[in-house]
Amino acid sequence: MDDSFYVDPIGLAGGLALWWSNDVHVSIIIHGEIFIDTKVSSSEDEWLLTLIYGPPYAEEKQDFWESIASLRSNNSEKWCLIGDTNIVASSEKKLGGLPFNAVQAKWYFYFMDSSCLLELPIKGGTFTWSNQRSEGEAILEKLDRILVSTNWISSFPKVTCVLDAAIASDHALIILLLKGMNKRCMKEFKFEAKWLLEDDCEAKVKDSWVPVVNCCKNLVFGRKLNKTRSKLRQWCRMKGRNNNLKEEEMKEQIKFLQGK
Prior knowledge:
Blueprint: E1 3-7, E2 16-20, E3 25-32, E4 35-41, E5 46-53, H1 58-69, E6 79-84, E7 94-95, H2 102-115, E8 117-119, E9 122-123, E10 129-130, E11 140-141, E12 144-149, H3 150-155, E13 160-163, E14 174-177, H4 199-208, H5 217-259
Parallel strand pairs: 5-6, 9-13
Antiparallel strand pairs: 1-2, 3-4, 4-5, 6-12, 7-11, 8-12, 10-11, 13-14
InterPro entries: Endo/exonu/phosph_ase_sf
């Protein structure tokens, strides 16, 4: 990225970072310990972007949402708000741990209603955070969200939100695609169970799942996974071409037999 802005942490707690490239102009309007409020300008449009980190403590949630609401004097501006809200909005957005707390969620909904914002749906999964434990100790929650005003949506009618893998963090990455999803580039990878019937599938996985050197320990799994995914895609395309050739040959044989 070409430029950046930071809110320093207090000791080991908090801290925010924002990076952007030169194809947009970002002006910092105001910032605090748990938010960065900006104006984003490009050749196509101009809008307001607020990055947030909601407090995890129940007694601070009301003050937080009231302070974020005070950033906008009216509801006529194009506004997009992204970040970790630290709010579970419904029981369907939580799995494991303590029961859903509706009292904590009320300030979030009050903020949305008073600011005339909508929550964008996210493709690719229900939960954005986990405690990274397994079986009975696992806790999964949707804490990260993107909220937008209706006139912001009018400027980006094809907008799409995609949930990517959580590799080096306990939060999954949210990708906001203003012009929509490039289906060719962003096609979702799915492992087909029928591949396990192919003798060479296991060999492809073993060849791809090789040790990764000169890489941070937290990224090793992600690198192996990406390489394996790429190899399986190539193998699948080749398999498909071979299968198509076999199908054409079989059709020709059927035609010949039917002709006799």
